[in-house]
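Model it.
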Amino acid sequence: MGVTRRELIQGAALIGTVGISVENRLVAAGVNEQTTSRPILLQIYFQVDPKRSAEFEKMFAESYVPALRKQEGYLRSGLLRLFAPDVAEEIQAAPTEFNYQMELVFDTEENRRKWVASKEHVQAWPHASGMAEAFAWRGFDVVGVDRSSD
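Modeled.
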């Protein structure tokens, strides 16, 4: 079954409209090609003994977040807990040794590095990493943002 010229044109118009919509959201979020600095996201993965889950989650809310909020360029953070093993198996999730993921978003990598050098980080990081059996991290440039309308 072939595609007609009209269907191709309609598809191209739809893609163009979606592209404009995405571009408008990116510009509204302060992300575009002319921007010399983009927000960054640092993902930190933790392997935490399930017996310490409540303590780890409390540490994030009561220690880590208040320390982050004092930092220049801090935009947001989140703490994610991996689905229970039966749910992960049901959805055929990729295996991982980590059961928590912390996401930290700063306006620039420079400001994230200032956070790492801050007295608040010197106190908060050992508290977080000390509860983990293992941890690792990755950094990302934020190159696209989608926000639902409020």
